[in-house]
Amino acid sequence: MTENLTTVEQILERKSHAVTRDPNVAPTHDIRETLFELEAKGEIIVQRVPEPYVEMVTKYGRTKKIPIEHTWHHKSCGQCGHIPGYSSSIFWLHRQFGLDYLDPTDQTSCTGWNYYASATSNASAQAAVMSRNFSAAYQTGYFPMIHCGTSYGHYKEIREQLVHHKELRDDVRRILDKMGKPLVIPEEIVHYSEWVHVMRNKFAEKQVVDMSPITATVHPACHYYKIVAEDAIYDPDIYGGQRTAVVTAVLEALGINVADYSTWFDCCGFGFRHVLVQRDFTRSFAVLRKIETMKNEANPDLTVTHDTGCVTTLDKSQFAAKAHDRKVGIPVLSDAQVAALAMGAHPFRVVQFHWHSTDWRPFLDKLGINWQKYWDEFQSDLDAIRAGTKSGITWEDADKPVVYA
Amino acid sequence: MPTTIESWNPGKAENRHPDVTYDEKERLFLEVKNDPRYSDFLYGCYECGICVSTCPSARFYDYSPRVIAQAMAREDIERVYDIISEDIWNCAQCFSCLRCPRGNNPGGLVTLLREVAVKNGLQETKDVLQGYSRVIYKVMLKGNQVSPDMLQPDFFPDWGPWVKEFSANMPVWRKAIPVDTLRGVTDAAWRTDRKTLLELYTIWFETGNMDIIKEIDEGLYDLLADVMQEELEEG
Ligand code: SF4
Ligand code: SF4
Fold first, then answer.
1. Which of A9, A131, B42, B137 has the fewest CB atoms within 10 Å, i.e. is most exposed?
2. Coil, strand, or helix at residue A72?
């Protein structure tokens, strides 16, 4: 009964209810149907999501299959290069459940970071890079799981372009032919944070650290839910279905108090080119629009996100702001790192806190984790590596969860 | 001179770049407009400003995704030239502006404009990308945008003492990562097969990506082409 309400009241009324999610009235077509049509015409191969998978509801009420294992890990250059505890936590979580996965060396990054930074590429090159990676995954029999939010968004955009433009498909096929590779598009483009979301209650079952003292804010990654928005996971129980459910749901499952702040929709300030060569913008935006707002409105112990650039930007931008007496000092982690820590992953061998620059010690103190003890342990690993008695840290050193007193 | 119906040019921009001919500006505009993706990115514009309210760059620069959508929709050639020669590099490519109720993609328009600016070697674009060449070198050669060895105090002084500590410890910290493909690798984000990189080089040559690099930075092109061609010949 909204006819007697003013326009503003109608909007508020609508916003206070969960959105109706009905694929029959979705504003976009279901791209998977087009993929299967193209496959039937012999134009592409559609790689099917392997069993076991879980079906999740996406923005317009469609379902999306999220594979649990037999996954080909499309790594992120920003994660592996600058925040390796992000990647090692994703793998560590898989290993805790004995899940079958492949960490390939036949993989390049999506090169999307460069494309969004400098445009020194074109549609064919970007589509060929994606298709080469997808074809490489297909040839191993493992299904792609994308670690980077930008790769995920970029690949969804390229999938749209490939589906809608025959000339582009023909060009990419011509190039792949030279490598003896078929044109493959996976049935679903899956982000690792969707797998984390699906696994969240399993993580909670194996949780060894009480996370209830922690208040966290969430920064949802732009390239996860803004680009080809219909692919992101939504859940009426999380923010009434008004925002993506990933990240927030896993934190709640682990007993963390998730606090809201008004600029949640803002980007982090990464800017692709800006973070590398014009960081005055990146720093200002990250501090003034994100970190300080979080501090003022929620005063969290931690902020959590699910993409490469966001972790880097939000974490690394805080140092210089201290010189200007800005309100900063919120450690930044990915959802995978938080889940791994909660399940007993070693703070340095696995979570690799030492690659993060905003002080994370108060956060670990609050959890009752004697980080100095584990840092000393890690230092003896490093000493052994320096002395040549150990070649490096392996899964044998890192798999076993820490038993906290 | 009184305005006549022929000379009336409502809302269109003045010529701020008289050194470039109108025909040249129009040619660049048409190159953007004729991109097959253009029709997916612009459906008209309500001037509602929703894109501006959500745009990070609009907060810190004299920059507006609404102006870009408007200028493109009105085919305001002079304004589009202002945008392509300057504004586009302010965009953070976050795609928050996909919130547009008209279904536009102003960030996508920026991507197309940037591609045309790069392909045509606009001087302003060359200037903007000058300090960025070493990143292009890395991504094209290694297939990774960033690597641990790029984290040096001279490149990231504002990231604090952490960068110094990191760069002093980098080789040993890299060995202390349990992921097999990462362990010990410092000049790339992970260990990549040689065959994979040769396939990547094939993509750069076959798609005309190398010609784009040549247009924007001939020295960088020579460096890259030398290494890639030698590797490809070795097979
Ligand atoms: S993509 Fe560019 S124009 Fe769009 S909101 Fe982000 S910074 Fe603004
Ligand atoms: S949100 Fe869309 S319709 Fe509104 S001003 Fe921006 S481009 Fe135009």
1. A9
2. strand
Question: Ligand 2 within 6 A of B43 CB?
Answer: no
Contact B92 A123 (CB under 8 A): no
The reply to whether A296 and A241 lie within a common domain is: yes
Residue A167 has φ and ψ, to the nearest 5°, of -60, -35
Assign residue A280 the CATH number of its domain: 3.40.50.11810
pTM score: 0.95
Does A245 lie in the same domain as A367?
yes
Contact B93 A117 (CB under 8 A): yes
Q: Is B202 on the interface with A (CB under 8 A)?
A: yes
Verify that A104 and A43 share a domain, yes or no.
yes
**pLDDT per residue as tens digits for the range B164-207:** 999 999 999 999 999 999 999 999 999 999 999 999 999 999 99
Q: How far is B3 from chain A (nearest CA, A)?
A: 41
Within a domain: A185: yes
Asked if the model's pLDDT at residue A17 lies above 70, the reply is no
Contact call for residues A14 and A22 (beta carbons, < 8 A): no
Residue A141, domain member (yes or no): yes
Supply the CATH number for residue A124's domain: 1.20.1050.140
Q: Is A304 helix (H, G, I), strand (E, B) or coil?
A: strand
Residue-wise pLDDT for A137-154, tens only, equals 999 999 999 999 999 999
Residues of B in contact with A75 (CB under 8 A): 181, 189-190
Burial A64-79 (b: 16+ CB within 10 A, else e): bbbbbbbbbbbbbbbb
Q: Which residue segment(s) compose the domain that A250 sits in?
A: 201-374
Beta-strand relationship, A101-102 and A302-305 = unpaired
Do the Cβ atoms of A290 and A264 come closer than 8 Å? no
Q: Are residues A176 and A321 in the same domain?
A: no
- A236 and A171 housed in the same domain: no
Best of A92, A116, A118 to substitute, by most chain B Cβ atoms within 10 angstroms, is: A118
User: Are residues A134 and A241 part of one domain?
Assistant: no
Q: Any idea which fold B22-120 has?
A: Fumarate Reductase Iron-sulfur Protein; Chain B, domain 2 (1.10.1060)
Chain B residues in contact with A357 by the CB 8 A cut-off are 159-160, 162-163
Name the band, by pLDDT with cuts 50, 70 and 90, for residue A22.
Answer: confident
Cβ contact A84–B95 (<8 Å): no
Structurally, chain A folds into a number of domains equal to 2
- Quote the ipTM score: 0.93
B100 lines ligand 2 (CB under 6 A): yes
Gap between the Cα atoms of B139 and B146, Å rounded: 7
Residue A215 lies in a domain: yes
Please check whether residue A2 lies inside any domain of the structure.
no
Q: Are residues A169 and A262 in the same domain?
A: no
pLDDT tens digits, one per residue of B116-134 = 999 999 999 999 998 899 8
Q: Is the C-beta atom of B72 inside 6 A of ligand 2?
A: no
